[in-house]
Design goal:
alpha+beta; Double-stranded beta-helix; 7-stranded mixed beta sheet; 7 helices
């Protein structure tokens, strides 16, 4: 009898897979973990259905894909490190960080992005688990960069193909320079942890390619509207217009070519951060939402700092 079952993530999508029937005992088998990792390389994301919602299960699933990576921002909330090392807590608190997007007033909304774009090193993947859910909203969207590259208008793709994008750690909604929804305004700023502003001030900008090629040969369009500062070497009105056009095209294709995951109590999910973009729909400011995320180490080696970071950032904040 097989140790797990597989099914398509969603009919018509060229990425993603669902895995069911997986148990903690089965995950002790290295051959099985390697099999799951191979499926991940092929499909770009996995939704694990009806899995045990425990710390041990989240760590066991994460172990299929590599060692954990510590989050590069010290101010991000961690789950008790003695109980669940390397796991961050993503909490949407009532009335904190509110934005109006296309007629909806929501908290914890995020545009299309990839994680750690503000760092010279990315991470291979993230594993998400929903701890506290909301009735409406709270949906995580996923968009495949391989499919995105193929679907992009050829003329626009040629213009961005060899570009590099500069990113800076800016998390407030008013900092979003590119890819804003048509109707958009910040209602209430996000609370910032102590020392956050000082850490951000000490960090140089990070630079990543807009398009890169996987070891398996596919090209990936990989542009994060969130935290983008401009096109390296063309931070001019002309360059900004191009980057805005790219981000709005990602928004347009994301509306029709993405997978939108509504979290259930029995789900966990992993996505390839070097390949996929993701977003969050936001939820009512009156509701709270809590996710636990493990971060899997593994970089593509194509990012860099614009200038050398200070010793304090290199040794401490970016650990």
């Amino acid at each position: 009898m097989p140790s797990f079952t597989t099914s398509p993530l969603q009919e018509g999508l060229p990425f993603g897979i669902r895995i069911g029937g997986l148990t903690l005992d089965a995950l002790q088998d290295k051959a099985l973990r390697d099999e799951i990792d191979a499926l991940f390389v092929q499909h770009g994301m996995i939704v694990f259905e009806d899995v045990e919602q425990t710390d041990a299960m989240q760590l066991a699933i994460s172990s299929c894909f590599g060692p954990l990576k510590e989050h590069p921002v010290k101010g991000v909330s961690r789950v008790d490190s003695n109980r669940l090392p390397g796991v961050i807590e993503i909490r949407s608190r009532r009335g904190m960080g509110v934005v109006e997007v296309d007629g909806r007033t929501v908290s914890h909304w995020l545009p299309w992005h990839f994680d750690h774009c503000y760092n010279d090193e990315l991470n291979r993947a993230g594993v998400l688990r929903s701890v506290e859910r909301v009735e409406e909203g709270g949906i995580t969207g996923f968009l495949d960069g391989v499919a995105l590259y193929a679907a992009f208008p050829e003329a626009l793709r040629r213009r961005i193909e060899d570009a590099e994008i500069a990113y800076r750690l800016e998390t407030q909604y008013d900092d979003l320079r590119f890819g804003r929804p048509r109707h958009y305004r910040m209602v209430e700023a996000k609370p910032m942890p102590a020392g956050f502003a000082d850490q951000v001030a000490a960090m140089p900008r990070a630079i990543h390619p807009a398009v890169w090629t996987r070891p398996t040969g596919e090209k990936v369009l990989h542009v994060s509207a969130y935290m983008a500062q401009g096109i390296v070497g063309d931070e001019t009105p002309h360059g900004d217009t191009l980057l805005e056009e790219v981000c709005q095209e990602i928004n347009r294709l994301g509306a029709s070519c993405s997978y939108q995951h509504k979290w259930r109590p029995s789900d966990m999910a992993i996505w390839d951060n070097l390949r996929m973009l993701h977003c969050v729909s936001g939820n009512s400011p009156e509701e709270e939402r809590l996710m636990y995320r493990t971060t899997i180490a593994g970089d593509y080696g194509l990012g860099r700092w614009e200038t050398e970071p200070t010793a304090a950032v290199g040794a401490d904040a970016m650990a």
